[in-house]
Design a protein that fits this description.
The strands form two sheets. A two-stranded antiparallel sheet has the order 1-4. The chain is mainly alpha-helical and about 120 residues long. Helix content is about 55%, strand content about 5%.
C-alpha cells in the first residue's frame, strides 16, 4: 500500500510494533553506523614533499540526513531505549545495511501475539 493509498483509505485496524533489541543487535547497529560513517571519510593524501593533506568532509552530515537523526540521537536510541518502533528499525536496517528483523520474524511475532490476546481475552 502506498502512502497516498493509506492516507485516502486508512486501515480499519492499526497494529503497532516495537522491537526489544538484544545486546548483540545493539552492537551490530553501532558497528554498522560507525562503518558507514568511516566509509564516507576520504583518506589522507600525501604530496611529493611529504606534506599530508586531509580534506574537510561532512560525512556525519550525510549519515544524519539519510537516517533523519543526529549521531547523538542515534546513540541515545540504540544505547538507552528499551524498545524501538518497527518503522524506525526498518529505516536503520535500510540505511545501515543490517538485518535486525525479517518480515517472517515480524509476522510470526504478530501471530503469536494475536494468539496470546485472543486466548487470554476471557480472563
Amino acid at each position: 500500500m502506498s502512502n497516498s493509498e493509506f492516507i485516502n483509505h486508512p486501515l480499519p485496524i492499526l497494529v503497532s510494533a516495537r522491537i526489544r533489541l538484544t545486546p548483540d543487535q545493539r552492537r551490530e547497529l553501532k558497528a554498522a553506523y560507525q562503518n558507514k560513517l568511516n566509509a564516507a571519510v576520504p583518506a589522507t593524501a600525501t604530496g611529493r614533499g611529504g606534506l599530508q593533506v586531509e580534506t574537510s568532509f561532512g560525512g556525519n552530515n550525510v549519515l544524519t540526513n539519510e537516517l533523519g537523526m543526529s549521531s547523538l540521537v542515534f546513540t541515545d536510541l540504540v544505547n538507552s531505549r528499551d524498545t524501538i518502533s518497527i518503522t524506525l528499525i526498518l529505516k536503520l536496517q535500510n540505511v545501515l545495511g543490517v538485518t535486525i528483523i525479517t518480515r517472517a520474524e515480524l509476522m510470526a511475532a504478530c501471530e503469536n501475539y494475536t494468539g496470546y490476546i485472543f486466548d487470554n481475552a476471557g480472563e
